[in-house]
């Protein structure tokens, strides 16, 4: 009987120890699973955080690149006219079948229309502060040291008007390509070549993206281009007014000054 009691006691202790070990193992398993779950959760959040940082940095880089591009485009070539420049939609005339006043006839009235576009803007004076910001050096005039410039669009209009006049040499003998003796006038040839290529550069630079359309023409019984199309245009009247208000007479300008080509404004020698 004593042996049985001893056996039962040992058996009871053995069972109790086993239960404790089981509970310990189970507890350790729960802890390991909890730790593993926590580790996985932390790993997921770590990945999310890393991706978030990458996304933010990528977005910042793209924004900065775009910002620099916009800044470079707007400031690459400074012009004080940009401050007043605005764009508006404009309907171009279909000047093939309906001429504008700037076409024919070649008479004093038409000449005046062309001259009034640009003639009073050949010598524009910039304030000294603006002159110091332009990308190329130019002459500084007078005690106020104003910068002497000409606006590109005005020069292009001059070139276009010159080519227009060359079409009618009888009216504009000074622009005849050939002299009375039949020899070529090299000055006129040079002027023509200059104007043609200057206009080419201007047209390509501005790259008007307006669209021309086709239409059926009853008179010729075929499709023709419709030149009466909409375009996005700079407000030329505002540019013209700005230029005319700053124009000076050529007689007021010095002629014996050096004009260099360095990328800065330079005061003329002798002033």
TrEMBL record:
Membrane-traversing stretches: 42-63
Domain of life, per lineage: Eukaryota
UniProt record, GO biological process: mycotoxin biosynthetic process
Keyword tags: Membrane, Transmembrane, Transmembrane helix
InterPro entries named in the record: UstYa-like
Similarity comment: Belongs to the ustYa family.
Protein name: Tat pathway signal sequence
Species whose genome carries this gene: Hymenoscyphus fraxineus
Lineage of the organism: Eukaryota, Fungi, Dikarya, Ascomycota, Pezizomycotina
